Amino acid sequence: MLDSISLSDNNDSIPQYGELVQLSMNVNNIGSESANNVTVTLSTADSNISIINPVLNISTVDANGSGLFGSFPIQISSSIPDQHEVFVNVHMQEESGATFEFERSFVVNAPHISWGTIEIDDTDGNNNGRVDAGESIVFTLNLSNTGHAVASDISSTILVNGAEHYYVEPVLPTIGSIQVGQQDILIYRVSFSSQIPTGTQVQLTAMAFHGDYLSTNSYNLTLGMEIENFESGFSNMPWNFQGGTWTESPGSFNGSTAAKSPAINHGTNTSMNITKNIQTSGSISFWKKVSSEATYDVLSFHINGLLMGQWSGTTDNWSQVSYPVQAGLNLFTWKYTKDGGGSVGSDCAWIDDIIFPST
Fold this sequence. Notes:
This protein has strands spanning 2-8, 20-28, 35-43, 49-51, 55-61, 66-76, 84-93, 99-108, 113-121, 136-145, 151-161, 166-172, 175-178, 183-192, 200-210, 213-223, 226-228, 240-242, 247-250, 257-260, 269-278, 282-291, 298-303, 306-311, 319-325, 328-337, 348-356.
């Protein structure tokens, strides 16, 4: 008997979040007798809608007749997810006692905020493009409406976790509306105390409110990453050398300088090392390159004497590697080792852009 359902509202007849819609039924009687005093009951297990009046009475559906009958007022939740499919059950009972069961569904449009990149402006600080302790940073948060309805009256806030002594100043914390498929921005200024330890891991959590919707996203930052790039030689940190002194050498992966191992004899090794007191477990990363006799003359990296990785040969071009580091006192060692004979390539190793965990 039930061919289909149709929905109407006071604008475009497309069901959207927060709307009151009318559900009507297209009924077709394919029998040879009229259906009289038909009681229709609409129900659902979906908590995202409320059926205001679930019972409808149809006096007569003529034999071989059809038509659009009545309507059920349905209130759609103002927090329903975008593209949520609502299922409703239709129970029809004739005067004769014959019953029919049908299931129908419809899809609801709603806004959906998707977060994009975060942009960092530290022109009021040292302008190095990173977040450092003691700086006032302007953060621009990019967001878009990837849903199927307009997102209106958007307000926001951000939370800072992982650091103490900071100040948050809203610059552009609200957006009037974001049309479907469009983008916009939120802007905040955050001032970090100069007393925050270098390498502290900070999480910015952005929260956007629009109607009964809440959208959140977190951005992980490292304050004042401790980087050794050897652009000032080895004077920035207390490096130690064994088996010869490593030197500053041009030709790094980014066109700057790198640390280069010295020439050594067969059957010997040379290393550079540094000890760091790591405050929080994290990771160490660095760029490396080696040009040597494959398998026999090897660049290796060690943490507290434990071998973490090793490389050899003449095809090992510049690449970045990363290894986990536990909190506490840690000894980091880069070593170039030669076997008893043979030399290939430049017979050395290079290290650059070491990023240490929080110290």
